[in-house]
Amino acid sequence: MIELHPRAVTALCLALSLGACGIGGMWMNGDPSVSRTLVPPRDTWQKMGNDGAARDADWRECGGAANGGYHVSTPEKSSAAVIQQALGRTFDDLQHCMMRSGYRYTGSCEGEIRSRYPACQSPGTKKPGGQ
User: Fold this and answer.
1) What is the pLDDT along the chain (131 residues), one digit of tens a residue?
2) CA 46/CA 70 separation, integer angstroms
3) Partners of 45 in beta bridges
4) CA separation for the pair 115, 127 (Å, rounded)
5) What b-and-e string marks burial along 47-66, b requiring 16 or more CB atoms within 10 Å of the CB?
6) Which residues make Cβ contacts (< 8 Å) with residue 65, sequence separation at least 6?
């Protein structure tokens, strides 16, 4: 009979449990975002006769971040629901501002969340399947 040291048994159990955590997980086949081209929200807006520098300036003027994204300021101990509501309100306000500035949304309107974007409700916006 083989006698196992308690530390060896503990190490074996730890290794097996940590290994089992990753089985079937999205990271087992690598980073799932590698095959996708991630475009900042700022780059999904176009305006005739406008270049990228003008769009960047207008994006920041509407409250967007310099990196092409957007952010919100909330109290440090805000709940997840408060932060999510602030994110939605901020992005909606940013979209309304860009549309008032004459921009057209060219991003995707597919999916439950995106289909409710204010920009996706605009008549001039590209809808799923193209327009």
Assistant:
1) 567 667 766 766 666 665 555 555 555 566 666 667 788 999 999 999 999 999 999 999 998 889 998 876 656 666 666 556 555 677 888 999 999 999 999 988 888 888 888 899 877 665 554 44
2) 17
3) 105
4) 9
5) eeeeeeeebbebbeebebee
6) 71
